[in-house]
Amino acid sequence: MPAGIGQAGPLTLLVVLVQYTAPHAYLANATGLAFSARAIGGAFGSAVVNVIINNKLGKTLGPQVAAAAIQAGLPVTSVGPLMAGMAMADPTALAAVPGISPSILAAAFDASHHAYAAAYRLGWASIIPFVVLALVAVIFVKGVQELMTVKVEATVEHVNLVEEKTA
User: In this structure, is residue 121 part of a structural domain?
Assistant: First the structure.
């Protein structure tokens, strides 16, 4: 659920904010611009979150996996081949690691999963301030009940109806 709120929160609430505050005659244009801004913001946001995740993984993945494997009984000299086999996701390379056992392999993959989970938590936590700002902005938007009528202020077509005279 936090990931859903983190991803969708700012991007969905932007459109709501624009549609509730734009003058009715310019609603279509404002909504189009909001969707464009949302796409650009989402692309930049995804890039920033990926940088945060990759930096965290770069600092923690190797040391955590190595420590877990060594603690489970892997010789220190076999850490390099283990990491290479895990990076390639090659069962043959993993089976060829000197001193490997199923329990060592399980400990290494468990440490890998924990490192990835921690990196993704940090990445998603970086979005929280933007979600809070978007929620605060939407909370202070005025109601639009008086605008919900059957009158269309910005029609798509302007047609003049002319009654045909029968002769």
Answer: yes
